[in-house]
Amino acid sequence: MVRLILASQSPARTKLLAEAGIRHSILVSDVNEDAVQASYGVTDPHDTALLLARAKAEAVAALPEAEGALVLGCDSVFEFDGEAHGKPYTAEIARERMLRMSGNTGVLHTGHWLVDCRDTHPDGDGEGTGTGTGATLGTVASAEVSFLEMDPAEIDAYIATGEPLHCAGSFTIDGLGGAFIRKVDGDPHTVVGLSVSTLRSLLAAANVRITDLWRG
Fold first, then answer.
1. What is the sign of the dihedral through the CA atoms of 35, 37, 39 and 41?
2. Is the per-residue pLDDT at 41 higher than 90?
3. pLDDT in tens, 120-167
4. Active-site amino acid positions
5. Burial letters for 34-63: b for 16+ Cβ neighbours within 10 Å, e otherwise?
6. Which element (helix H / strand E) includes 40?
7. DSSP characters for 136-187?
8. HSE of 60 in the Cβ direction (CA atoms, 13 Å)?
C-alpha cells in the first residue's frame, strides 16, 4: 500500500486531504523558515513558497519514519503589491495588511514538493518491492484572490478571533475569512494551502495514481 506523509502541521491541509478521500499521515518538520530564506537569499514570493516546501519535505524525508513513503511538503506565501506576506503572527501586522488588502487583489502562491522515499531496487533477499522512483520534484500553484471592501470594525473583529494570525496573507478561504473574498481566479484549493490537482501531477511523476491513495 502506498503511504503519503504530509510534512505540515496545517489543520487546513490535512482536512483538505481527508475531505478529498486521500489517506495520509502527518510528520512535522523542524525547519527554521527564516534561516532557510536567509541562507538562500530568496525574496521572490513564488520562489520562496517552493523553497520552503522543499525544505520541509526533504527534512521529513530524511527521518527514519519516512522510509518507504512519499513525503509532501507545502508552503504558502501571499504576494501583495510586490511584497511577500507570510503569517502575520501579531494583530498589528495583520490589521495593517488587511486595511491595504481591502477592495484589492493579491496572489497566493503555494509551493508543493514531493520526495519518493520508497525502495528503488528490490533487496538482495527479494523482499524489497523496488517500486520507488527516487523522485524529488516540486512546483508552485498560484491563484489570484480579490477582496471585498472591509471596514475597520470588521477587520478588528476578524483579528480578535485569532484566525488570521497564523495564515499566509492574514486570511483564510475555508474559514471566517471567506466572507471577505469576492472571487478567486485559479484553483481554490491553492488558497487553502494544497492543490489536490497539483498533487495528482506530482504523484504521476512518481508513477503513482492519486486513486491509489483513496480510502477504501
1. negative
2. no
3. 876 655 555 678 899 999 999 999 999 999 999 999 999 999 999 999
4. 75
5. eebbeeeebeebbbbbbbbbbbbbbbbbee
6. helix 33-40
7. EEEEEEEEEEEE----HHHHHHHHHTTGGGGSGGG--SSSGGGGGEEEEES-
8. 29
Q: What is the pLDDT of residues 106-117, one digit of tens each?
A: 999 999 999 999
Question: Is the torsion defined by CA of 95, 96, 99, 105 positive or negative?
Answer: negative
Contact 86, 77 (CB under 8 A): yes
- Would you call 77 helix, strand, or coil by DSSP? strand
Give the list of residues 6+ apart from residue 115 with CB closer than 8 angstroms, or none.
57, 58, 61, 66, 70, 71, 73, 135, 136
- Per DSSP, helices labelled H in 41-118 are 45-61, 91-101
- Residue 210 C-alpha cell reads as 492519486
Nearest to 136 by CA among 120, 118, 115, 117: 115
- Residue 103's CB is within 10 A of a number of other CB atoms, namely 11
Pairing relationship of beta strands 25-26 and 136-147 according to DSSP bridges: unpaired
What is the residue type of 62? A
